[in-house]
Design brief:
Rossmann fold, 5-stranded parallel β-sheet, globular, alpha/beta, 12 strands, about 45% helix
Length: about 375
């Protein structure tokens, strides 16, 4: 796929158009293709508009950002100042949004407490101490009733005008068994798809970054490690306690009819019945907003389907996570959150990627480079 995409992109860039409109141009490109695209866009004499989640490309070529992610007023946001200006503007807008929403929720909670307190005083709390007469108790009743009505009116008049901010990604606590190899691969290879045999072992908390040109066999290796593809030679062994989850480049061919919520709940019920895994609510992952959760799977965008795919994998509480090009179709904000989660999780993590920014972010991880040929 990457080689065909590069040919089409090369034809477009070589045609000397005045204006270029590019939709996710870096998907399926290897490092050479990414460098080629970046340099051609920098040198392009005309204008161009790029729809992209590739943070390194955006950092290198973009001057203004029209951000279509959810905003406080529901409208797109325009940021100047290049990549740094966009990130800083987004951060400040998000902080203000969350602060104002929390303040309004806190005020509503305070008003509810005031109403509850007034009701309590009406029923019991306004009664005078012993030794005071019935007349004094009766004389205080109208004031307590008025206080209750005043509190109820304040609560009715209060409206939360700031919409709920977007959710943030939250990994569940993933099981860890320190010191025990969860996965071993000994001299594994797939004829015609990998150039050389690979040997590796992963224990809880360990990390591995896999790189290589298109056709080097990164996706093949991850499928072999996950047990979804049998190697031609060699052997893969999973520990008895290992739960291995592969998040591939493309989502599976799911039933398009159920909503994302229905599909997810069906999946987690199966995990509970078959494996005894406690259900993880979809909303608790922070991956899909309410509207998307109630949208049929077939009508979700590519990015939303990728989010659902990740949620489904996390629901299994894996202790080995395999990611094949995890940044494809995901927003820059979610990629930043995912990167932080991958650094912090107790699970073993393998990431195969061409994403230059992700490579820079994970540069300290152990690195497996796959050759393109023998």
């Amino acid at each position: 796929m990457g080689q065909r995409h590069r040919v089409r992109l090369g034809c477009l860039l070589g045609a000397a158009h005045d204006i270029l409109l590019l939709d996710e141009p870096t998907n399926h490109l290897d490092r050479d293709g990414l460098d080629f695209l970046t340099e051609r866009l920098r040198a392009h004499p005309g204008g161009f508009a790029v729809v992209s989640h590739d943070r390194a490309l955006l950092r290198a070529v973009a001057e203004e950002f029209l951000d279509l992610d959810p905003s406080r007023d529901g409208r797109p946001q325009l940021f100047a100042g290049g990549y740094a200006g966009w990130q800083e503007g987004r951060r400040r807008a998000r902080e203000r949004w969350e602060h104002d929403h929390e303040e309004q929720l806190a005020e509503r909670a305070r008003l509810r407490e005031a109403v509850a307190g007034a009701r309590e005083r009406l029923s019991t709390g306004w009664r005078p101490d012993k030794g005071h007469g019935k007349h004094q108790r009766q004389s205080r009743a109208p004031g307590v009733v008025q206080a209750l009505r005043r509190r109820e009116a304040e609560l009715d008049a209060h409206v939360v005008t700031v919409p709920e901010p977007p959710l943030r990604l939250r990994f569940p606590e993933l099981p860890a068994r320190a010191g025990t190899p969860l996965l071993r691969a000994d001299e594994v290879a797939v004829a015609g798809r990998t150039a050389r045999p690979v040997t590796l072992a992963l224990a809880a908390g360990e990390r591995l970054l896999v790189t290589g040109r298109n056709g080097a066999g990164k996706s093949t290796l991850l499928a072999v490690l996950a047990g979804e593809l049998a190697p031609t030679t060699g052997d893969v062994r999973h520990h008895a306690t290992a739960r291995v989850a592969l998040v591939g480049q493309e989502v599976p061919d799911w039933d398009p009819e159920p909503t994302a919520q229905e599909f997810y709940e069906r999946h987690v019920r199966g995990l509970e019945l078959n494996d005894g895994i406690a259900p993880l609510p979809l909303a608790a992952t922070g991956l899909l907003e309410k509207g998307a959760r109630h949208t049929p799977v077939g009508r979700l965008s590519q990015g939303q389907q990728r989010r659902l795919h990740l949620a489904v994998r996390l629901a299994a509480r894996p202790n080995v996570l395999l990611f094949d090009e995890p940044t494809n179709h995901l927003s820059a904000a979610l990629v930043d959150e995912l990167t932080a989660a991958l650094r912090e999780t107790a699970a073993a993590v393998v990431v195969a990627t061409h994403d230059r920014q992700l490579l820079a972010d994970l540069a300290r991880w152990p690195h497996l480079r796959l050759p393109a040929d023998g």
